[in-house]
Amino acid sequence: MTKWTLRCESCGGEKVLDVGFNLYEFKRVYIYCPKCRANTFHIVVGHEEQSE
Ligand SMILES: [Zn+2]
């Protein structure tokens, strides 16, 4: 699994998402933002490989 750091384009809030696929293939990801309390576009700002 890879931990992806995503930043909401609306509020600038960051969230971490655990997914098994490469989010760099997507320019933007449309997911729920808890701050906006709505689905918004998020950009990928970084990732972290998990060793286990
Ligand atoms: Zn937001």
TrEMBL record:
<protein>
    <submittedName>
        <fullName>Uncharacterized protein</fullName>
    </submittedName>
</protein>
